[in-house]
Design brief:
Oligomer: single chain
CATH architecture: 3-Layer(aba) Sandwich
Shape: globular
Helix content: 40-55%
CATH topology: Rossmann fold
Number of domains: 1
């Protein structure tokens, strides 16, 4: 992975991850870096097909099946896209990663967090980001920001989303210096600057 750096932007629904991923990628390109922006689940034909299943409000899945589908999409993305790009010296800005699965399926749905992390370790081959940015805000604000109809995950009860937020903050605490918690209630520009200040030059 010489030369390529992996930056993860994660957090609850409505935190602005997709917007920030695009803005950070633009700034990295201005620094002369080759940059690829990817999302989870997705980023490959298989991953996008799994995404459609996972987010469809009509899909009925057990918590374990849901977790494994996220991990399957991740395995495909890491092996088919992420590792080859990093090895070629391309930086990657990734919208969600393993921390989402811990937050949503472990803290949110009650699966064992250590077991979820073990599966993630297997499917990623132990891949670790250069830096993880957790965009934090209360779920009420995040859900209010959503436009259009809510998908299967977004439509879950408020208590679920509160547990998800707790999960992200717990993951940030567990990661220590490897994670940066950013107040996502700040302006879009302020959030971008907070992220870029922690991105290696």
């Amino acid at each position: 992975m010489a030369g390529g750096r992996l930056y993860v932007i994660d957090g609850p629904d409505g935190a602005g991850k997709t917007t920030q991923a695009a803005r950070v990628a633009t700034c990295l390109r201005e620094r002369g870096r080759e940059v690829l922006v990817l999302r989870e689940p997705g980023g490959t034909p298989v991953g996008e097909a799994i995404r459609d299943v996972l987010l469809d409000p009509d899909t009925d899945l057990t918590a374990t099946a849901e977790m494994m589908l996220y991990q399957a999409a991740r395995a495909q993305l890491v092996e088919a896209v992420v590792r080859p790009a990093l090895e070629a010296g391309t930086d990657i800005v990734l919208d969600r990663f393993t921390y989402s699965t811990v937050a949503y399926q472990a803290f949110g749905l009650g699966l064992d967090a250590d077991a979820v992390r073990q599966v993630a370790e297997l499917v990623t081959g132990g891949l670790k980001p250069q830096r993880v940015f957790i965009l934090d805000l209360d779920p009420e604000t995040g859900l209010e920001r959503l436009q259009g109809g809510r998908d299967r995950i977004e439509g879950r009860p408020l208590d679920f989303h509160r547990r998800v937020r707790e999960g992200f903050l717990a993951e940030a605490a567990r990661l220590g210096e490897g994670a940066v918690v950013v107040d996502a209630t700040r302006s879009v520009d302020d959030v971008t600057q907070a992220i870029l200040s922690q991105v290696e030059p």
